[in-house]
Amino acid sequence: MNSKLIMMIILGIFVLSGCANNVKYIDSKNSKEYTSTSLDLHDIQTAATQSVQSLLQSQYVKNLATEKKPKVLAISDVVNDTMQNFSTEELTRKITRDMRNSGKFILTMAISGSGGSTDKMIQQARETRNNSEFNQYSVQEKGTLIAPELSLSGKIIQKNTKIGSKQRIDYYFLLSLTDIKTGLVVWDDEVNIIKLGKNKSVAW
Questions:
Q1: pTM reported for the whole predicted model
Q2: What's the order of all strands across the beta sheet hosting 71-81?
Q3: How far, in whole angstroms, is CA 73 from its chain's centroid?
Q4: How far is CA 162 from CA 167, 195, 200, 202, 203, in A?
Q5: How far is 45 from 49, CA to CA, in rounded Å?
Q6: Fewest CB within 10 angstroms: 1, 26, 185, 196, which?
Q7: What is the 3-state composition of the chain as percent helix, strand, coil, each rounded to the nearest 5?
Q8: Which domain holds residue 159?
């Protein structure tokens, strides 16, 4: 191995070491100073928190005080109509987690729309019926799944407006809670997040 090749290897190691040293952890509580015009953790948390507060203060939830059992909730479709690629489940799971913590709702993973996800094992475990490799006394019987009573759906919209050399970005978080039996909306809410940035920094 000649000296030139050795020097190139050493230089490469130093470059990689330098890049690694530039990476650092950021406390989520102090990460707002690194914000951008795109939707980030704080925006999702803000939208979820405000939506849940609106729901828990609604007349519908107040009327649930007399209910003996929590309402079974399913996550339906939540459309990402922004110019960014992210999972709407980041929003819905935080909302439903806070809803469950209130003691008035419980989430089913047996059925969901695009805004959530299902636990595939619920169905796969039931496919073991009549399979001699499994003790049939341990297999779930038919008719044991609990159907949802409520459906959480929504849409996230982005609107960009050019203002001189800057861009204003409006995000709309639209959420609805629907009674599946009647089809009636029992609660809905809208959370707005507005950002301002230079044209080059705007998320398209």
A1: 0.81
A2: 105-107, 71-81, 150-163, 166-179, 185-198
A3: 15
A4: 4, 12, 11, 10, 13
A5: 6
A6: 1
A7: 35, 25, 35
A8: 38-127+147-201
Q: Which tens digit of pLDDT belongs to each residue from 11-44?
A: 666 555 555 567 777 766 666 666 788 899 899 9
User: Is 5 within a domain?
Assistant: no
Paired strand residues for 188: 176
- Label the pairing between strands 150-163 and 71-81: parallel
pLDDT tens by residue, 90-117? 999 999 999 999 999 999 999 999 999 9
Please tell me whether residue 162 adopts helix, strand or coil conformation.
strand
Q: Determine, yes or no, domain membership for 95.
A: yes
Q: Residue 59 domain-assigned?
A: yes
Copy the structure tokens of residue 202.
């705007």
Judge whether 78 lies within some domain. Answer: yes
Cβ-contact 70, 101 below 8 angstroms? no
Q: How many C-alpha atoms does 190 have within 13 Å on its Cβ side?
A: 5
**What CATH number is associated with residue 67?**
3.40.50
Token pair 């530039």: residue: 22
Tokens of 55: 């729901």
